[in-house]
């Protein structure tokens, strides 16, 4: 599965990619092993984002130490080791307390979802063998389900998009450092 299977013609897109001097299986394992505690920028930005929710007494478990991929605001839709992992769902992220409880949607239902008042958000991490290593890329796509929601989300996105991009770069960097360190130690041992 790729993002085109779930969300075509998004209103907002961010993409990041990094070449890593390690094989895809090592990069895959390290992507899944990266903990929030190893991502200081992500922890600070996530805490800022969740502060209204935390102050309201909701979501206290959201920021505990756990793997980064398990802390995403949208659920896992597909995983194809060691090639790609796709997440997606609907959100009302611009609302101070996070909005209504989103429905649980599989890829097909998310693709067809157009109830007003929501944004559809999808994100992937893709691993591609390249030049003796692995290119690790991430793409985030967002589509508002109606014009009024798009206007509201645009104001929110202008504020959070730089942080969202910083989080992706931090994750790619953490995976690179871990995977390359592990690949070097494999070479020295072998």
Word description of this protein:
The structure is a single chain. The chain has 190 residues and is an alpha+beta fold. The chain has one domain: 2-Layer Sandwich (Alpha-D-Glucose-1,6-Bisphosphate, Chain A, domain 4). Helices cover 39% and strands 24% of the residues. It contains four helices and five strands. The protein has a five-stranded antiparallel β-sheet with strand order 1-5-4-3-2. Helix 1 packs across helix 4. About 3% of the residues have low confidence.
Radius of gyration: 17 Å
Instruction: Provide the succession of SSEs.
Output: EHHEEHEEH
Helix percentage: 25-40%
Count of discrete domains: 1
- Cα-to-Cα separation, first versus last residue: 35 Å
| SS-based class | alpha+beta
Low-confidence regions = 51-55
Q: Widest sheet: strand order?
A: 1-5-4-3-2
- Report the mean per-residue pLDDT as an integer: 89
CATH topology: Alpha-D-Glucose-1,6-Bisphosphate, Chain A, domain 4
Q: Please outline the major beta sheet.
A: 5 strands, antiparallel
**What is the percentage of strand-forming residues?**
15-25%
Number of helices: 4
Number of strands: 5
**CATH architecture verdict:** 2-Layer Sandwich
CATH class: Alpha Beta
Shape: elongated
Notable traits:
alpha+beta; elongated; 39% helix; 190 residues
Q: What is the strand and helix layout of this fold?
A:
Blueprint: E1 12-20, H1 24-33, H2 40-55, E2 76-80, E3 84-91, H3 107-112, E4 119-130, E5 133-144, H4 147-189
Helix pairs in contact: 1-4
């Amino acid at each position: 599965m790729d993002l085109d299977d779930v969300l075509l013609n998004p209103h907002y897109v961010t993409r990041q990619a990094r070449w890593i001097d390690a094989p895809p299986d090592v990069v895959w394992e390290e992507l899944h092993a990266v903990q929030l505690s190893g991502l200081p920028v992500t922890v600070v930005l996530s805490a800022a984002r969740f502060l209204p929710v935390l102050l309201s007494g909701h979501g206290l478990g959201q920021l505990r130490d756990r793997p980064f991929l398990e802390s995403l605001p949208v659920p896992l839709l597909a995983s194809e080791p060691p090639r790609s992992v796709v997440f997606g769902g609907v959100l009302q992220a611009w609302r101070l307390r996070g909005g209504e409880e989103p429905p649980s949607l599989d890829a097909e239902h998310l693709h067809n979802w157009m109830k007003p008042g929501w944004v559809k958000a999808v994100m992937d991490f893709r691993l591609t063998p390249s030049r003796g290593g692995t290119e690790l890329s991430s793409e985030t796509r967002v589509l508002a389900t109606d014009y009024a929601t798009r206007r509201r989300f645009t104001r929110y996105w202008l504020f959070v998009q730089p942080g969202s991009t910083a989080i992706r770069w931090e994750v790619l960097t953490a995976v690179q450092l871990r995977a390359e360190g592990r690949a070097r130690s494999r070479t020295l041992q072998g």
